Amino acid sequence: MRLWKRGLAILLLAASALVLVGCGGSEPLDPEARKLVVIGIDSADWRLLGPMIDDEGRLPVIAKFREESASGRMKTFYPLEKSPLLWASISTGVMPEVHGIRNFVKGSQQKPVTGSAWYAPAIWDILGAAGMSSSVVGMWTTYPAREIDGVMVSDYLPYGHGREKPLEGLVWPDSLSAEVNALRVDPGSLTDEDLGRFLTPEQLSIAEAEYPTEMQKLRDVYAADLGYLAVNRMLAQRFDFDLFFYYLRGPDMISHYFYRFLKPQDSRLVVTPEQEEVFHDVVKKYYDWADEVTGEVLSWFPADRQAVIVSDHGFYGPRKSGQKGAAEHSEWGIFLVRSPLYQPGARFNHIDLIDICPTMLALMGLPAAADMPGRVLRDGLTPDGQKRVEEMEKNRVPSYLSLRPAAGPAGEVDAGVDEEIRKQLRSLGYIN
Ligand SMILES: [Zn+2]
């Protein structure tokens, strides 16, 4: 860590120490009580999850978590945006003009954007400066993985299966690379039993024979999610992080690929009765799986660990206009927080995406910065929560921007992997 960073870190720690002992003798914060698990489910939307819980009795983990949490719908940026930009604002607490992550690819050659594009520190950088550790796995725009206090596994992990060996720079620290790379799941290795989670045997045999493109998409998405789940499981068993950031990308991709079979009346693409019959339940069954995964991730930690479940936007489904990509997203995502600072069952009146980072920092006992436009969420606070939020808001530091990561190594450039990524983004309707 550079000296000036150290200087700011000390200032920061002094500020949080003030919070700990100042203001009429508050008790020092228990390091265990400051820890946080974040479960990010890309594109989760109450319009789908709500009826699944309330009318169909599905998603038991998220249903129970909602009872234990303060929750609400989260307003994402409008006009509707792409996930890398949104997750960067969730993680940094600043707007895209400041953090610099605007898109998946850049330039006329559509080169994928690398981790050096971040101009603002993410919550894991801020925590590192305050002496707290993080695990960040599969987050957007993290190739090559860069130095943080903890472990970072890149969003490029699922790519390049055809290569002789995995890309360099997928994991920080490099000492974990071999172990992490070995946990990748090859889409071709998935069995009928694995895919039986999403399709009945009859549906599966028709799908394998008639719809290889759809089946390949399902395999690719599920294999990537399974690989990341295995990596997270290993990291949770081996280490004890202050922030454990679990990110599940698959639900968004599955929604882009399969929502038209759930709502064929809205789709411009013709959906035949047979296709509807075969793929109608895939989106909902993928959420059944996401719910199980949520339960497993929570089970890795003590039952009183603070936890957040959040999405970056909702999902509307196919548009009558035929527009794809971010146009299929909806402006309402989800946000739930389980913590002694918030009353179980409370409902937030309004949540903006930009409020999430200040709120997560407050949960972890750190103030937001004055140049973060969001606020710490106040609805449903317990008396302890009110005290914490008042202290945090009073002690905002002027800015965390000087903690921005230095431009890291460029990583390994592999034209094949770049094209693999572009092909996937094209099939999702994100680029042309
Ligand atoms: Zn999407």
Question: TL;DR of this structure?
Answer:
This protein is of the alpha/beta class. The chain has 16 helices and 13 strands.
Task: Annotate the secondary structure layout.
Elements: H1 3-25, E1 36-41, H2 46-54, H3 60-68, E2 70-75, H4 83-92, H5 96-99, E3 105-106, E4 111-112, H6 123-129, E5 134-137, E6 150-153, E7 171-172, H7 177-181, H8 192-195, H9 201-210, H10 212-238, E8 243-248, H11 250-262, H12 273-279, H13 282-299, E9 306-310, E10 314-315, E11 329-330, E12 332-338, E13 351-352, H14 356-363, H15 383-394, H16 415-427
Helix pairs in contact: 9-12, 10-11, 11-13
Q: Per CATH, what is the topology?
A: Alkaline Phosphatase, subunit A
Question: How many E-type strands?
Answer: 13
Task: Name the overall outline.
Answer: globular
What string, H for helix and E for strand, traces the elements in order?
HEHHEHHEEHEEEHHHHEHHHEEEEEHHH
Q: Please, how many domains?
A: 1
Under the CATH scheme, the architecture is: 3-Layer(aba) Sandwich
- Give, in spatial order, the strands making up the sheet with the most strands: 7-6-5-8-1-9-12-2-13
Largest sheet: 9 strands, mixed
Low-confidence stretches: 20-25
| Structural class computed from helices and strand pairing | alpha/beta
* Overall pLDDT score: 92
Looking at CATH, the homologous superfamily is: Alkaline Phosphatase, subunit A
